[in-house]
Design a protein that fits this description.
The chain is mainly α and about 200 residues long. It is about 45% helix and about 10% strand. α1 runs antiparallel to α3 and α4 crosses α5. The structure holds manganese (II) ion (MN). Manganese (II) ion (MN) binds next to α1.
Length: about 200
């Protein structure tokens, strides 16, 4: 079995003006495509070929090529799914209750997540994860993620933002905070909620 680059269920320009079409196209057809094919090359002929991506990433140790490309494959699958072409919804129901319970308020959560995204030095991701029923915010370098044993923050990712420059540089150049602010206008909280309950 090999992993496949997912098809986006919206067009590259669907997230304009928050994320521009050219960035989306390059991000999907070049970056994500490369992680996918490099992951397949890295696991070819190994037992990983019979595993899910979650099983692969949660192994005790990861070869660098599997860590980087498997992480890149998984992280981007999640990222595309979390983006809402129609504009952001709002956290509701049990998810909202959990956010308020664990962070004090939705605004306090947004502040913590924004800080994690802005302060991640260099390339990486910021996350909202569920761990033992508790919600946590943190970040990882490169294409690491909270499923990996090497990650400082551990749990099931339910929201993630790519803060690699390739995710925003064409439109925002060095202004990562502006990209992170725009991201809040694009979150599909119905998907976050499904992952929270999943
Ligand atoms: Mn990326």
């Amino acid at each position: 079995m090999s992993f496949e680059l997912p098809t986006l269920n919206y067009s590259y320009d669907a997230l304009e003006p928050m994320i521009d079409a050219r960035t989306m196209e390059i991000h999907h057809t070049k970056h994500h495509a490369a992680y996918t094919s490099n992951l397949n090359a890295a696991i070819a002929g190994s037992a990983d070929e019979k595993k899910t991506i979650e099983q692969i990433l949660s192994a005790e140790t990861l070869a660098p090529a599997v860590r980087n490309n498997g992480g890149g494959y998984y992280n981007h699958n999640l990222y595309w799914e979390l983006l809402a072409p129609g504009g952001s919804t709002e956290p509701e129901g049990d998810l909202k209750k959990a956010i308020v319970n664990d962070f004090g308020s939705v605004d306090a959560f947004k502040e913590a997540f924004t800080k994690a995204a802005i302060t991640r030095f260099g390339s990486g991701w910021a996350w909202l994860v569920k761990n033992d029923g508790k919600l946590l915010v943190g970040s990882t370098p490169n294409q690491d993620n909270p499923l990996m044993k090497v990650s400082d923050i551990k749990g099931t990712p339910i929201l993630g933002i790519d803060v690699w420059e390739h995710a925003y540089y064409l439109n925002y150049q060095n202004r990562r905070p502006d990209y992170v602010e725009a991201f809040w206008k694009l979150i599909n909280w119905d998907v976050v909620s499904r992952l929270f309950h999943g």
